[in-house]
Amino acid sequence: MKPRLLTVATTAIAALALAAPAAHAAGPVVISQVAFGGPGGGNDEVIELRNVSGAAVAIGGWTIVGANSAGTNSVRATVPAGASLPANGTFVFANSAGTFTAQSDVQYGTGITATGGIALRNGSATVDAFGSTAAPQAYREGAGLAQPSTGPGGFIRKNGGTQDTDDNAADFTGPTTPTPTKCGSACTGGPVEPGEGCQTAPAVTSITSIQTLGASSACNGTRVRIKGIVTGIDNLYGSSYDAIYKGDSGIWIQEETRSATATTSSAIFVAGIRRSATNPADVIGREVVIEGRANAKFGQVEIVPDGVGSTTNPNAQEVDLNTVAVSVSTDKKPLPEAVVLDQTKAENQDPINRPYYRALQGMRVTLPVGIATGGGTTKFRDVFVEPGTDATRLFRKNDAAAETTPWSDAPAELGISPDGGAGNPADPRLPWRSLTQVDLDLFDVVKSVTGPLSYSYSFFKIVPQLTGATAPTIERGPINAAYPPAVPTPEDNTLRVASFNVENLFPVGESNDGHTITDAEYEERIRTIALAIKNFLKEPDVIAVQEVAVLNGKNALTGLAAKLGNYTGYIAPNNDGRGIAPGFLVKNGTTATNGRVIGADVPGPWANAGVCDLYPGKLFDRAPYALELKKGDITFTALSNHWASQSHQNQCRIDEAAWVNTAAKQMQQEGKNVLVAGDLNDFEFSTALSTLAGGNALANLWTKAPVGQAYSYKFNGHLQTLDHIFVSSGLESRVTDFRYVHFDNDYYERPEGDGSGISDHDPPVVTFELAKGASVSQPSNLTGSVPATLALTIGDASFGTFLPGVARDYTTTLDATVTSTGADATLSVNDASTTATGRLVNGVHALRTPVQVNANGGTYAPLKTDSSPLALASWTEPISVRKVTVGFKQSIAAEDGLRTGSYSKTLTFTLSTTTP
After folding, report:
1. Where are the stretches annotated Disordered (predicted)?
2. Range with top average pLDDT, 241-245, 426-430, 698-702
C-alpha cells in the first residue's frame, strides 16, 4: 500500500508583491471569456484571451494571476515562451480538474474563488482584468460582476469579444455557458532547440527545462513534448482508507545524456501510464516521445498525458503508452548511467530544500551503502536509510521543524520504495508483497541500491526495478541477530499490564477500508495477533487493546480471546464511525468487574473547527473504556484510551487529556489506584501528556524505559512514541520493570506470519510487584460518628462617627466562624425589626439608604426591607471552623440630615443546611 497522508491534496499559495495599476490601458489582447465555476462544480474554470487587432501579438511569458477577496494572489498559469497570438486568434487556459481541458492550450491546478478575480499580466504590467464584486480593485475593472453559485458560470465579452470600456459589468454578458476556442499549433513559436525553456508542443522541451530545484515545474500547466528512455516503472496505485489513486503509478523517462552544465534533473515521472500485466518491465529501455501537461504533485514534477485527468483525484485513469505517445521505439536503448550518490554532498546539502537530491529527481541513482536507522521495513513495504553505516537510531525531535520539515535533522535520509516490483495489485489496501522490496531490520546495512529517485510526501526514495541493475545486497545487523524480540518471562508474584494497538481488527462480514473481511482473513489476523501476545509479550495479565471493531452486533475481540484460550475480552460499542473501540483482554487469574465506556457523551468544548476539527461533535471519537481489576494485593481501575489522531489539532488531544486527568483524580479521591494506557497519539513532550499528568495525578512510565528504547512508532524513518502507560502514585511505587517490545517497528514483517509486523505500534509493558507469601483476607469494620452540628460565632461592628454634610461611604467588618456537618450550608443575614427595616435608626430617625452587606470581599447587596434573609455565603460540603469576613457599607449623602446620637440596628445572622 502506498500511503497518502490526506485524501484531499492541498496547495500552498504564496502571495506575490506585484504592482497593479488602478486602470488598465486598452490593448490588442483582452480577456474575452471567463468562468470561475459551472455545472460541474468550482473547478469548471476557463479563461479565453482574444487578439482584437489585425496583427499577431507575442504573448510568450504572459501570466494569469489569481487573487481571492483578501488579496492573496499567485500566478495560476503562464503562456509558453515563444507563443504568438495571431490576429483575431484566441488562447485558452483551463483548470486541469474541470471540463474544459480539451479546449485548452494551458492548464493550471490552483483554482480561483467565486469572490476573487484575475489579472492578465505582461511582466509586471496588467493587460486586462476580470473579477467579482468582492475582488480587489487590481483584479477587476469597474465594480466587477457577481458570480453565480449554481448553473452556468461563464461571462462573454460583448461585440464578438471586442468591447472594452474598462468596466466588466458593461463589457460582459452572462452568466452563460462559455464556448472557448484554443489556439493550438497556430500559437507555436519558431523552432527552438531543446533546453531553451518551455516550448509548446510539438517542439521538444528538454526535461532539464521542465525540472527545477523546487517543488514545482518551470512549465506548470504547459503542454510539452519530451523525449527520453524509460528507466523505471511505478507499479503500485496510491491509496487512502477510502479511495484508490491510479494516477500515482506510471513510468520514469530520462534523457539519454545530460548536459555537463545542467543544474536540474534530466528525468521526469510520466503519470498514469498503464504497465503490462504479464511483463511490466518490458517498457524499460524503450525510447519514447510523448506529450502531456507539466505538473507538480506533492512536490514531484510530472508529465500528465491526455486522458489521465487530475492525478490527485481518485477518478484519474490509466492510459496505454502506445496510444498516447508520439512514438515508442521497438528496440531497447542502454539505460543512462546511474549517478552514484555522494554521502558528503547529501549530508551537507541545505536541510530544508535538499538541492542535491532535487537536482537528481527522477534520475537513475545508486546508493552505495546505507543503514536502517529509523526502524525496519514498514507495512507499506518501504524502508528509510541513511547513507553510510552509522548505527544510531533516528528519533523525532521536540521542535517545530519536526512537524514542518521532518527531514531537516537528517538531510541525507532516503527511502527505498517497493513500487517497481509491486505487481500492480488491484487494491493495494489488501496484503501484497513486492519483488523489489528491501526487507531490513533496524541497523541492517544495504548496498548498491539503484533506481529512479522519486519524491513523495516530502521524502526522496529510490525505486529499485525488476531489470536494469543488480538487486541490492543486505548485511544483517545486531537487531536481526537478536530476533525474536520478547519481554522477559514474568516472575512469580507479579502483575503485568500491556497496551497494544492491534490495528484495525474487524469481524467477519464487516468493511475495513472498503473491503469486507472474510473468514480466512479474520482467522489469519487473530492467529498472528495471538502469536505476538504469546511469544513476544509473554501473555500479560492485562492488555489494553485499541482499534478493535465492535459494530452491527459483532465483536472482533471475542474471537481473539477464544484463540488465546485463557483470556476474556471486555469492550463495548463506542463513538467511532468505523466502529473501532478501546477495550481489554484479561488473563485468567485476574479479577475484572464493572467494564464500561466513560465520557462517550461529553460534548466537545471547542468554539469552532479551527480549534479542533472534531467540532461540532463529541469530545472523544473513541471514548475511554474503564475496568476494575484485581490481582493479588493490587486493586486498580484501568482506562484503555485511543485519542484523536495526529491529523487532528493538538487542542483535540489536550482537551481529551484534561477530561481523563479529572476522571483519574476523582477515582483517586475515591481511594482507587488508577492506570491510564493506550494509543494517546501524542509524544512524551507534548502538552496533551503533561495535561494528563497534571497536578501530579499520574506519572508517565516512559521515563522508566531503557535509555534509547522508549519508542512505539515510526514515521518517515523517525522513531517516536505514541503509546503510553500512566499510573497513580500507589501503583508507581510497585513498578519493577517498564519497556517497549519492538516487534513491530524494529523488524520487517516475516513472511511466515509469526506475529512480527502485525501492527504499526510497539506495545509498552509494565510489571508490578505483588506482595510475597501466603495471605488471607477478611473484612473488618472501623467506624466513627459525627453528630449533626451547626455552629456560628459572630461579633459586633461599628461604622464609627458619621459626619453631617459630607458625602461618604462608611465601611466596617466583623468576623464570623461557621461549622456545619451538613452536605450543604448557607450563611444569611436579615433585619427582623419592623422599624425602618434594613436601615439604621436613631430613635424615630432613620438613615435614608439601607445598610449594604457582603462576605469575604464579594459584591455588596442591600439588606432586604421585607425582613427576608440575604444570602452571604454558601458551601456544598461539610465545613469546620471556617472564617467568614462580613463587610458592611453605609452610604450617606451630603444633604442627608443626621440626628445627634447613635444610629444602630440589631441584625440576625443564620447558618442553615437542607441536609443536616
Report:
1. 144-188, 400-428
2. 698-702
580-587 and 567-571: which strand pairing? antiparallel
- Residue 646, domain member (yes or no): yes
Instruction: Note the residue count of the chain.
Output: 916
Preceding peptide of 202 cis, ω within 30°: yes
Task: Cell numbers for 47, please give them.
Answer: 479563461
CA dist 595 and 584 (Å) reads 9
Q: How far apart are CA 319 and CA 30, in angstroms?
A: 36
Helix, coil or strand: residue 247: helix
Strands (E), 52-141: 57-58, 63-67, 73-78, 84-85, 90-95, 106-108, 117-122, 125-131
State which of 332, 362, 390 marks the end of a domain.
332
Taking the whole predicted model, whether its pTM rises above 0.85 is answered as: no
Indicate the pLDDT class of residue 8, thresholds 50, 70 and 90.
Answer: very low
Beta bridge partners, 292, equal 224
Residues 617-651: b if buried by 16+ CB within 10 A, e if exposed: eebbbbbbbbbebebbebebbbbbbbbbebebbeb
Residue 179 contacts residue 100 (beta carbons within 8 Å): no
**Residue 9: pLDDT band by 50, 70, 90 thresholds?**
very low
> Which range, of 159-168, 244-253, 617-626, averages the lowest pLDDT?
159-168
**CB-count exposure of residue 601 (10 Å: 0-12, 13-18, 19+):** exposed
Whether 625 contacts 619, CB under 8 Å: no
The three-point CA angle 528-530-536 to 5° equals 90
Q: Is residue 14 part of a domain?
A: no
Q: Give the pLDDT of residue 24.
A: 53
Count of domains forming the chain: 5
**Domain carrying residue 212:** 207-332
Predicted local confidence at residue 193, as pLDDT: 41
Examine the domain organization and report whether 447 and 512 are in the same domain: no
Cα–Cα–Cα angle for 691, 636, 707, nearest 5°?
A: 55
Domain end (from 332, 349, 369) = 332
Mean pLDDT for the chain overall: 91
Residue 488 lies in a domain: no
